Amino acid sequence: REEERLEAEGYYKSEDEEMDSEDEALEATANAITEHTRLTRIEARLKTTKNRPTLPKTAIKRTVGEMSNHLERLGLESSNARARSRISKRARSESRGEIIARLSSTARPETSVVRDRTMSGVRNVKQKLESEKVRKLAQRTPNLFAKRGESDRAVQTKMPKHLFSNKRGNGKTDWR
């Protein structure tokens, strides 16, 4: 009964609020923020899907143009930073004299004779063949024993715990 009265009076009717300029500006900034976050998420996703190792921030090479664009997006002036980068680049470059000195210096000539390493320490081919024969003979006995693989070299447990854990008598009842 009371509810019907309130409804008739219009208590439950919500008035359509008109948006004033402040509300519109607030909504516009909110939309801009959500759009910006959406774009940065997409950008990050694209970066991570590349099939290459990630680089630390310090190792990533950036151009001066990228830096100035970033500063302008933040609302800062980029001309000072640009000038600073130019000065530092110029200070790092080699002087003309150093370049000429490097070009004029000659490298050590390579040795013309390349010796066969298999013949090092051997007088002639006959001696080399003899030494190979001795080497093969010396390797024969280790090769005979080398048939055992890595798996055979493990120390096996003499009394496996899962068989000898119970107190049943000696004999064939030790595994139940």
Topology:
Elements: H1 2-9, H2 21-48, H3 64-74, H4 79-92, H5 96-104, H6 125-145, H7 161-164
Verbal overview:
The chain has 176 residues and is an all-alpha fold. It has a domain at 65-91. It is built from seven helices and no strands. It has helices spanning 2-9, 21-48, 64-74, 79-92, 96-104, 125-145, 161-164. It is flat and about 115 Å long. The model has no long low-confidence stretch (mean pLDDT 79). Residues 1-24, 138-176 are annotated as: Disordered. Residues 15-24 have a biased composition (Acidic residues).
Categorize the overall geometry: flat
Radius of gyration: 42 Å
The sequence of SSEs as H and E is: HHHHHHH
Q: How many E strands?
A: 0
What's the pLDDT, averaged over the residues? 79
Strand share of the residues? under 5%
Low-confidence stretches: none
Termini distance?
Answer: 81 Å
User: Which bin fits the share of residues in helices?
Assistant: 40-55%
Structural class category: mainly alpha
Counting DSSP H or I runs of 4 or more residues, the number of helices is 7
**Largest beta-sheet details:** none
Oligomer: single chain
Pick out its properties.
176 residues, mainly alpha, 7 helices, 0% strand, flat
Brief characterization of the structure:
With 176 residues, this protein is mainly α.
